[in-house]
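Q: Predict the bound structure with magnesium ion.
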Amino acid sequence: MIAAGLVQASAPDVAEVRSDAPSNPSVADSILYLDGVTVTFDGFRALNNLSLVVGRGELRTIIGPNGAGKTTMMDVITGKTKPDSGEVLFGSDIDLTQLDETAIANLGIGRKFQKPTVFEKLTASENLELAIKGKRSVWRTLFTALRSDQRDRITEVLDLIGLAARRKEVAGSLSHGQKQWLEIGMLLIQDQQILLLDEPVAGMTDRETRQTTDLILGLAGSRTLVVVEHDMEFVRNLGARVTVLHEGAAIAEGSVDHVQNHPRVIEVYLGR
Ligand code: ADP
Ligand code: MG
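A: Predicted complex:
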């Protein structure tokens, strides 16, 4: 672990503190702490000395051009990719670089990939049933009776993700947006402390995007959310602290207004 002073030194250009701006979490109350993280693929640096501190209970959005390293950052946090160098901590002292994907998921770090990965032939409700019961074979799981508290929780989550009326329909017949919500539901039902959402509104209609905004805002606070997204209107509506990635490093961080007016961000990503 490096000293707090060094974190300041390596942190990206940070916004003037506005009274209404989300504040930068200190290392002490961080739930995710990345410092100096580098990942190379055949000599190419997908992450280049990346530092990122996310506070417990924080909602954070990550933006940046294609190839900036956003998905690789999630791969590193979830143990799918091991960094060449750098620190990746959960809480103040759990070194995620030493754990495999299953151990990291069991710590309470859940991830939604860019493409929905629900079981198309099972109903919305059955998908949640699988998620709540944990990893066993699909058929064994579906033949095990649900406890009443699990049943209640499934109903609660179906309501939250707007799928109560479609609970008995197979996931394959749901719209793209509804599949994304179902997958978020599968993370919620596992009571993960941190949810990493990779481009959750990609391919959604405007209406679905607005509903996803409401869903995420409703989830914020009781858990930590890290949301990677390109849709700037969506990012603005979330109103959270934004980190901009470019060529594997954080180049700016602060409120949406701050990063949208940041010369380097305009130059490499948002344009004029
Ligand atoms: P983003 O999600 O910001 O679009 P990625 O993290 O997917 O960016 O990719 C960052 C860079 O790393 C890209 O240039 C991509 O081609 C490269 N990359 C990602 N994963 C791999 C891999 N497994 N092997 C080789 N190159 C990769
Ligand atoms: Mg990506």
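A: The first strand starts at residue 13 and ends at 14.
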